[in-house]
Write a structure and sequence with these properties.
206 residues, mainly alpha, disordered N terminus
Length: 206
């Protein structure tokens, strides 16, 4: 299945993100599959941690509590699946530094409520959407086992992105279109900014 065929079922993500993952990043990922899987495992744990943090921070929001609880469980299940693949491939789980991607988005978030929550949810949507796009771009180039696994994650990552975006809209009480457009530009810049180290969410290869 080609990247276009995979993404055909997820056209909303293709239009939500302002740029595709650069080919240079794909080439670097194929050359660093051990780091790819280690950082993917880290990303799943971070995603679960973000969901749990939101549950503790906004205990009065019942809908958020329920959705973040489900999200955290699913992200941890994905972590377990990645860890199992790493073990099968004899890839040791070692500490590596985080990509600058999330930091590049987070530094533009507002600090006062309810704006902080809205921005957190919008940023979460972009992170999940980019993850989905990268799984789809990588899958056709990987071995059968890993490619099949990454294709299996597409629907859940798309659902996560949509869920974050819906919560942002629900809690904003007004249009979030301008804020989404603002972060879309920030996200594009983060993806196209060269990085010296390869990571799952790193920018274009330096």
């Amino acid at each position: 299945m080609t990247p276009c065929e995979i993404m055909h079922s997820l056209p909303e993500i293709d239009s939500f993100l302002l740029c595709p993952t650069p080919d240079a990043w794909i080439a670097q990922a194929l050359q660093n599959q051990d780091v790819l899987l280690i950082d993917h495992a880290n990303c799943e744990k971070k995603a679960a941690s973000t969901a749990i943090t939101l549950m503790f921070r906004y205990i009065e929001k019942a809908d958020l509590q329920y959705k973040m609880s489900r999200l955290a469980r699913e992200e941890l299940r994905h972590f377990e699946q990645v860890a199992a693949l790493m073990k099968k491939r004899a890839i040791p789980y070692r500490p590596i530094s985080a990509a600058l991607y999330a930091q590049r988005l987070h530094k533009h978030m507002r600090s006062s409520e309810p704006h902080k929550l809205i921005d957190t949810l919008i940023v979460g949507a972009f992170i999940e959407a980019r993850s989905c796009e990268r799984f789809s771009r990588l899958a056709p180039h990987l071995d059968e086992e890993l490619g099949k696994f990454y294709r299996s994650l597409l629907k859940s990552e798309a659902r996560h992105y949509q869920g974050y975006l819906k919560l942002a809209q629900d809690y904003a009480g007004a249009s979030i279109e301008a804020r989404v457009a603002f972060f879309a530009e920030i996200e594009r810049e983060a993806i196209l900014t060269p990085d010296s180290e390869f990571r799952f969410h790193s920018g274009a290869a330096a």
